[in-house]
Amino acid sequence: MIRAGIIGSTGYAGGELVRILTVHKDVEVVWYGSRSYIDKKYADVYQNMFQIVDAVCMDDNMDELADQVDVIFTATPQGLCASLVNEGILSKVKIIDLSADFRIKDVATYEKWYGLEHKSPQFIEEAVYGLCEINRADVKRARLVANPGCYTTCSILTAYPLAKEGMIDMSTLIIDAKSGTSGAGRGAKLPNLYCEVNENIKAYGVTTHRHTPEIEEQLGLAAGEKVLLNFTPHLIPMNRGILATEYAKLKKEVTYEEVKAVYDKYYTDEKFVRVLEKDVCPETKWVEGSNFADINFKIDERTGRIIMMGAIDNLVKGAAGQAVQNMNLMFGLKESEGLELVPMFP
How far apart (Å, rounded) are the C-alpha atoms in residues 132 and 291? Predict the structure, then answer.
């Protein structure tokens, strides 16, 4: 059995990790870390775990934890993992960080967008960006994985094949994305109160959202060029799910069959990426509670643009599910182990 520890187990992503790992046949969670609930029973924080998890919450002592487990998940605010990790820890245990601390390769870019001094830049180059469908081979060899953000997972997977094949003008790429409120975390915040969110939709982080440089960097690597794009997120009144609608100018006239062949080239063998049938637009309800990413596209012959669409569950494929997918690869397990989650409907 793989012994796992979770730092930040009482946030939404941490709670989802617990839900998934509890039924993972090869994993035992032995450390439920939560700075806010030390010594409190985990099932008192999440009552859905009553008589399922019989453990109390512990602190975030990564040095002590590294001596007890094989893998550490850090589902924590930006900056914490970077402040705790060191060579001694990495020599003993694998780390999957769900924060942004090791996602962006340029330290200055990270510090600018997140407003933090990076505490362990020496590990940034080593860290593998854990988008399994793109970096699977590197993930298998990694001891430190940067689990991608939720918006970024959806945005990158949706456009990646066309960026990689050079079919779109990357300078024209615009991403309009919408997320359920769980993406903002479990902490109490005025903009996320029920009366603020219900019967409402709003854009936020316009031109400044922190996932922007992550998307630019990864799609830039795919396209082989520097990418600058407009990314605008929106908050909508539902619990979970992300829908990304992306627009770009095609470099030449193409048929549906030609574009579909490109998507099939990259995703036919990917269990968790489903390219939908022609004219079927992705919906968040179709992926809720699952590790799937549903993707499709529509060619606008009138404008010479292509509209790419993607949907994921932000807490599963956008966070905890993807983290478990990374863990499976790092330990040589079946990649889908623990993730055979049929989407919930309704």
Answer: 12
What one-letter code names the amino acid at 177? A
Residues of the domain holding 183: 151-314
Distance CA 78, CA 331 (A): 26
Same domain, 198 and 117: no
Max distance between CA atoms of the chain, in angstroms, equals: 62
Other beta carbons less than 10 A from residue 66's beta carbon: 22
pLDDT for 185-224, tens place per residue?
888 789 888 999 999 999 999 999 999 999 999 999 999 9
Number of Cβ within a 10 Å radius of residue 193: 11
Q: Say whether both 105 and 166 belong to one domain.
A: no
Residue pLDDT, tens place only, 245-261 = 999 999 999 999 999 99
Structure tokens at 209: 């959202």
- Taking the C-alpha atoms of residue 185 and residue 297, their distance in angstroms, rounded to an integer, is 30
The CATH number covering residue 301 comes to: 3.30.360.10
Q: Give me the active site residues, please.
A: 150
